[in-house]
Specification:
Elements (H helix, E strand, L loop, with lengths): L1 H26 L3 H29 L17 E5 L7 H9 L5 E6 L4 H8 L8 E6 L6 H17 L7 E4 L5 H14 L2 E6 L14 E5 L13
Parallel strand pairs: 1-2, 1-4, 2-3, 4-5
Antiparallel strand pairs: 5-6
């Protein structure tokens, strides 16, 4: 691989000397000829830099746009499902709420038990009341329903009403998300979801991450009534 870089550098040098020689033959070897060759080289360099900038700008991930009614706001309470690995959407949610967060319930499977303990020791959670709840069956909607209902019952007892807390369903499996959604709706609390672009390791790309409020609208009766 280093040999290819050396070969490429030599080829660029040969091409540069050839172009310089052609310019001198065209403009002559006097002062104005050399100045013209220098200005031409600077112009080409500027074009190359502009092209590279345009390519990098195009390839850079951009934040996902949310409408005003979709964007969540930081709240004092959070019920959060954890997912395996570092830099995932669950950590994005914690960072989003950290400025006002007072109470958090971490719902964790055995696979992420160590992660739950680590997060509870994070400096920005030292002033936050953290409760860990063990989810034994991540594919059981009923299990997640019961844990979320218990979390919301505790939240209500501690003065955290529906406008003070989100239930984050980003990191749970679909069956668990169904149970969590039912529990939140029955208790009058809102749901959030982290939308983001992810890298190959499944980590959320920070500059693309947004926390979205999930709107659940009641079913509309069919037009004309039931007959």
């Amino acid at each position: 691989m280093p040999f290819l870089f050396v070969l490429g550098g030599l080829l660029l040098a040969v091409m540069g000397n050839a172009v310089y020689g052609l310019l001198l033959l065209w403009w002559g070897e006097g002062f104005w000829g050399i100045l013209g060759a220098l200005l031409g080289a600077l112009a080409l360099l500027a074009l190359v830099v502009a092209g590279l900038y345009a390519v990098l700008r195009t390839g850079r991930p951009r934040p996902i746009a949310l409408g005003p009614e979709e964007a969540a706001e930081p709240r004092r309470g959070l019920v959060l499902f954890l997912s395996p690995g570092e830099g995932k959407a669950d950590e994005t949610a914690l960072q989003f709420h950290r400025s006002v967060l007072q109470r958090v319930w971490l719902i964790a499977t055995a696979e992420v038990a160590e992660k739950a303990e680590r997060l509870a020791r994070e400096p920005h959670l030292q002033e936050v009341n953290v409760t860990r709840l063990d989810l034994q069956q991540p594919r059981d909607a009923g299990a997640s329903y019961r844990l979320v209902r218990e979390s919301l019952r505790q939240a209500a007892e501690q003065g955290l009403g529906p406008g003070d807390l989100y239930v984050d369903i980003t990191s749970c499996l679909r069956p668990a998300a169904v149970g969590a959604t039912l529990a939140a709706l029955e208790s009058g609390y809102e749901i959030e979801y982290v939308v983001a672009e992810y890298d190959r390791a499944g980590r959320a790309i920070g500059e693309t991450s947004q926390v979205m409020k999930v709107r659940v609208l009641p079913a509309q009766p069919p037009a004309g009534g039931t007959g």
